[in-house]
Amino acid sequence: MGQIYYPNPVKLIFSIIGNEDYMFLEAKVNLTKIFGKIDMESEFQNFDFTDYYKKEMGDCLKQQLISFEKLIIPTKLSIIKHISNKMELTIATNNNEGILKKRKRRINLDPGYLTLSKFILASTKDGSARIYLNHGIYAEITLSFIHKTFQPLDWTYLNYQTFLFINFLNDVRKKYKDQINIIQSSQNT
Length: 189
Known about the structure:
33% of the residues lie in helices and 31% in strands. It is of the alpha+beta class. It has one domain (10-187).
């Protein structure tokens, strides 16, 4: 019989996609109220890999990744995805005079987490590489840490395969590794 080990806490990451700077700011303010201080932010990259959000959110979309200082328990990911979905709706409603018009969302918030070996994203959609968590939410390993860097998998979306985001997540991993080392050394004393 195998020994049961519980996972370390993980590094919360959010992807934010939108086309208006004030929406990014509003999303970050709302996220920090719930999840605490943001400790790292990527540069923006153009989100021109697909037209998936164009009809709903408009043109000239850009994407940014942010990470949070406070680590989370990985089993909380489905709850966090529900929180971010409600936040998207609240932001859309607040910025459309209380009425959702042609564009349902003004901002897209996708939570995930990073461990030393992988980067995982939450989704409301099932897929061949996704595992059901609970509350209607699935998880997908988006990147694996192999040969000292994050590597895309066959199903990884193009926007997560960019040099910018891979480097950012490698930097987040360094910070996370330091956090885990501090936790483990405090447990050993």
